[in-house]
Amino acid sequence: MSKTALDKDLRKLDRMEAATHATSRSLAPLGIAVVFLVGAAAWTSVTFQGGPYGYLVVISAVIVGYMALNIGANDVANNMGPAVGAKALTMGGALVIAALAEASGALLAGGDVVSTVANDLLRADTALEGRSLVFVMLAALLASALWVNLATILGAPVSTTHAVVGGVVGAGIAAAGFGVVVWPTIGTIAASWVISPVLGGIFSALFLALIRKTILQRKDRIAAARCWVPILVAAMAGIFAAYLATKGLRRVWSPGAGLVLTIGLGCAILVWLAARPWIRQRSRGMENRKRHVSRLFRLPLVCAAALLSFAHGANDVANAVGPFAAIVAVLQNGGAAAGELELPVWVLAIGAIGLALGLALFGPRLIRTVGEKITKMNETRAYCVALSAAITVLFASALGLPVSSTHIAVGAIFGVGFLREFYSNRRLQSELVPVRAIGIDAGRLNASPEEAVAKYRRRERRRLVRRRHVLQIVAAWVFTVPATAVLSGVLYLLLAALML
Asked: Which residue ranges does UniProt annotate as crossing the membrane (predicted)?
């Protein structure tokens, strides 16, 4: 009996030790995040020389760091999720590549769109200036960060750009009424709710249909791959070269349209010449199966994910530091209205480090949602998603349409998923001739009524996109701007009551 009691006690101790270890592992990311925020506050207090308003900049820096953490945790999944879902990258490899690419993009090319976030949403000719503008931006940052954090907890990828826009609009209305908002800008942003996912879905479905037609449905898939994969990879290289020239490197270089086209064509030709022997060598001895042919897209997919992360860091760092730049500009002028915004490197550094840390500490959950829970990914489908994201941004920029990288990527995943579902159900439908059997027409089918019902049920189960996730994500998209606007307005009124 004593031995049995001792064994039970030892088992209890083992369970307690395991539970303690699991708890410490779950708390470790929070601890690291807190250390980062404390470090951002200390760094800002030493770097910024703002006189009596320095404490507001320190508070703002903490909120900026919190926002950057949430952007890294939520937005980066759009770029790495498909590659992880396709097993082209492990979770660890994706986190390392994305963290380096995001931080590099934010530091080297970030900040070009800061003036849009900080200035273009609110009218400059209103009474909203000085400390009121500071509190508007503080409320906007905190509200958008809280909303993105909630979306991350719920596993819903949302647009951090829209969250910041909603925050600035809500706080601006609370401070100076509806007339302070530049409503045409808000209208174009609202239009992107529909434009972004639709364009992403259309382009990704078209690319997948092209690959199916030219490679996967051919009798000799290897020969078709040797011909078409270099062309597709070259197209990807040209598109990404133009993408980076126009979107990802605008802070350090701004080429004209003719030069961008030349760069894209030049990169496409060089990559096509390099890809032909590489694809031929990789395809030697390969089985003539779809799964094996899809592996030829693995390396291009990894490169595409890294380039998307770089461009994302360059562009979306403004979501965190844009309002902060306005705060710093106001307080450096002693509380007067901000003029032309100049973004200090130390501000970009807080955003860059926050993006990388947020991805590493809290990103895996959203990466799994985007890459695995919406629809099943392989290398070919993930490649179509990445290529669609780049070309959609270029296409929308040429038309002057504001788009969300989050909406584009998720819409592209929906596009390949629904196309697969369409093809699968069309093939199954061809096996079913209208018959009447147990509520189903069963007269002309060359099968028993039981077989007809089985085929019908089989067709009904071919839903390759999880509807629950579609509804959840779309609901989060719709509520992002109004929810952050209301929350930001409330936070502004609280700040004004306490500090004005």
From this structure: 26-46, 52-69, 89-110, 130-151, 163-183, 189-211, 223-246, 252-275, 296-314, 343-362, 382-401, 407-423, 470-495
Mean pLDDT by 10-residue block, N- to C-terminus, for the chain (500 residues)? 57 59 64 90 78 78 90 81 88 86 74 54 66 84 92 85 88 87 80 83 93 92 94 90 71 73 92 94 89 90 85 72 75 57 72 85 84 86 89 72 77 90 71 46 53 59 73 84 93 83
Q: How far apart are CA 121 and CA 133, in angstroms?
A: 12
Model pTM greater than 0.70? yes
Any residues with CB less than 8 A from the CB of 191 and at least 6 apart, and which? 401, 402
Give how many domains the chain has, as a whole number.
1
* Neighbour count for residue 91 (Cβ, 10 Å): 14
Residue 457 lies in a domain: no
Q: Which amino acid is at 471?
A: L
437 domain-assigned: no
Tell whether 30 is covered by a domain.
Answer: no
Domain encompassing residue 159: 36-430+463-499
Distance between start and end Cα atoms, the chain: 72
Q: Is residue 304 part of a domain?
A: yes
Where is 437: in which H helix or E strand? strand 436-437
Q: Where do the H-state alpha helices sit in 90-220?
A: 91-109, 114-119, 131-154, 160-176, 183-211
CB-facing half-sphere around the CA of 344: CA atoms within 13 A? 16
